[in-house]
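User: My advisor, Dr. K., asked me to get a structural model of this assembly before our group meeting. I'm new to this, so sorry if the format is off. These are the inputs:
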Amino acid sequence: MSAGMYKAKAWGVKGANFGILAAFIAFTAFPFYWMLMTMFKETRDLMNPNHNPYLFHMRPTLEHLRVLFFDTLYLQWLWNTAFVGFLVVLITLVTAIPAGYSLARLTGKTGERLGIGIFLTYLVPPTILFIPLSKVISSVGLQDSLYSLVLVYPSFTIPFCTWLLMGFFKVIPKDIEEAAMIDGHSRLGAFWKVVMPMSVAGVLTVVIFTFTLVMQEFVYGLTFITAASRFTVSVGVPTFLVRGDVYFWGSLMGACFIASVPIAILYNLFVDRFIAGFTVGAIK
Amino acid sequence: MATVETRDIKKHFDDVKAVDGVDLSVKEGEFLVFLGPSGCGKTTLLRMIAGLETQTSGDILIGGQVVNDLPPRARKIAMVFQSYALYPHMTVYKNIAFPLKAQGFPGEQIPAKVEWAASTFGIGKLLHRKPRELSGGERQRVALARAVVREPSVFLLDEPLSNLDAKLRTSARDELQQFQRRIGTTTIYVTHDQVEAMGLGDRIAVMSGGKVRQLGSPQEVYNEPADTFVAGFLGSPPMNLFERDDYIAGFRPETFLPVGLHDTSEPLVTLWAKVHRVEHLGADRLLYGTMRDTFPNEKVIINIPFTVEMSITPGETYEFAVKEKDIKFFDRSTGLRTEPRRFWEKRS
Amino acid sequence: MINQPQSLADNEKWLGRAMIAPAIVYIAALVGVPFFLALYYSVSDITVGSKEMSFIGLDNFRHLLHNRTFLRALRNTFIFAFVSQALVLVLAKALALSLLRDFRGKWVVRLLILLPWVAPISLGSIGWLWILDSVYSVINWSCRALGIFGPMTWPIWLGQPTLAMASIITVHVWRLLPLATVILLGGLTSIPQDIHDAAAVDGAGFWRHNFQITIPLVLPIMLVAMLFGVVFAFTDMIVIYVLTRGGPYDTTQVLASLAFFTGIDGGDLAAGAAIALFLFPVLAVSAFLLLRLARRTEVT
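Assistant: The format is fine. Below is the predicted structure of the whole assembly, which you can bring to the meeting.
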């Protein structure tokens, strides 16, 4: 092949690349773009099948958002989600951080197996456990309480976060801890005073990931809680914002957008570390 | 077999000038070494010749043909990487056969070719193993076999010996040179190890800061360095350099012997030095000291072969001498080599 | 002479056990115990209201195997999971390849690609509910405007069984693509650049390079991503709950959603537990495969 043909081929590949990327982005991001459009459109504009849905035929409106925030329990649900999220993150950190460190440093061969075993429990889906758990929750008297979620959610956040943290801790050189121990710390002291400060980024990743898991959870939320005022966002929006057969699409889309995009931005900041921790855990 | 030429080749990464204008001509069948410290641009230059990096400006010619826009596989080159870059999921056989298959070599002829390449490096017994089952030396030979199997016009080698144990390195060096002499392919070799460069190269291109400081045979770059960088980089221990007014004078440690040990037919310059410390290195003795007159209190290293039985006591001052022709002079501001001066007559 | 460690903080063996204990206890209590309870319920006649329950053997399972809805759900579960995973595999590979090089705005691109994965599943599904709406679907409008659909074509995406299944698979693919891509990208970037350079010098063209060099080297991690995807798709009920509630007429039920409707809405906890337990064999196989992979991930 001549040099010119090679050059042309290189440009062709670049173009194809760009095209593929554009197509994918359109696929993944379109629903959110659509949420954005819908939440600002007048209902009469939305509900007219003759209008081009890509354009605004009437001026954009904030009415749907007003309804969402003041006429529905949306803010309450956001608060509930934040409340549960905060407590679950706390419980997860307190449990998973020591466990992750233990698996990374202190337990040797059995530790490897235990680590994988813990990770595998993540694969046991809520859809198997939710029925017996619902009976347990009601017998403990936590039926219809947010605390039922606070109690149960760590059952899936702890396994995964332990795995992630194990990965993060493995990367920290042992020399640094040993230097601290020679300097006079115990193993626990070295962990607390030296390893933890170095793992701040890893811990933050775990916090965000846990919070995302909490926000996404649906099955337990739907099963354990019946009062609308105690729903989390993930459960409240689909079940309550639909009154009878009429879907308040404008507010509905607004609700979805607001609860999805900001957390995605936050998640994007940490996804590199997430992958790093995830894959390190798999390499011996 | 082909010649390689670079014409004013440059490579800039934003503000960094990795390669800053190199004009080079590699002769057919020659073993040329790019020598320099890390960051001098030698690997970047090699990669541009290979086609793995695109130059910012300048031309590269292989076999007289401009190859600027050709991808690596069209340049008829083979490369051995520092990490060997063996395909970890393939057996040794498949690794060596891969280039042949990629270039559309007729299937029936491949086994014979692979056998030939493998036996050239003595790895015929390892063909069914995977890279992770091999030792460092064995992996290196597989990399060489894979490079050789296509019978390319140019070999490019990027520090292929640096991952080997020290002992293995010397024997590998010997084998490599014998192999290249036998097969006669033009070879470009990158290293930071000056002993390797001196041992292997027909010519050495000493590089620093993206430029070639000197291009010459090992004797040339060692005995007649073009500037202070070349003078300081080659030779272990390095050349003694002394700054004076507007010039720098220097001589190599092994040229500075106790007076009386030179054969007196050539003109000598005698200088006194106090010896502080002696290192017994087996074949040599290294003396660390300071000069007495002419360059007072400047540090000096002296290399005496073990054949000299004269006893040296730390703390004593001795009279040493160096042949006039062994003193090299450099311009103080540019570092470039200048004409000799007669500084010793200006003794104060 | 080595002294005995003074305190727990020094005693590594016991410190390790103490540090991991809370996690193990939590998991045992909230995953292990309910799991065995599920087993127990499935062989009983417990309901939402009952205070007692009695052992009825394998009756629940026997009834299920004769139940047409259940068999349909079983079939759907496999179809949805494996078809969506196959699609994700191909698409993620293409997407990961085009994301390999750094370019300006990559951060934003990555954000847009991650959105389906990070957004709460139920909310993303509602977005699709609106897009696939029988009257106002933007897809229908756009296809008509582009001339792809004629005047008589008005697909009811969530109302007709085949279309509904296709829609659900699409949403699953939409949801799982980001995770698979990101994991795959991690695997691709872990291949040393030297190997790619060597292949370039050796003469490998685009297809050979990809199929003989790149894919074999990312295969282990690709399989991990796939296993994850299969598990998620297999056990998911949210997408179906939001989009079709299992309809039309239970044609898009999967095991997970059927378990929910039977157990919670219908009150028959025992049957619900039994249905859900059919998920377990696939999960066990996946776990086993993952373990095997974990042992074989030594490539270099």
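One thing worth pointing out at the meeting: Residues 1-28 of chain A form one domain.

User: Perfect, thanks a lot.
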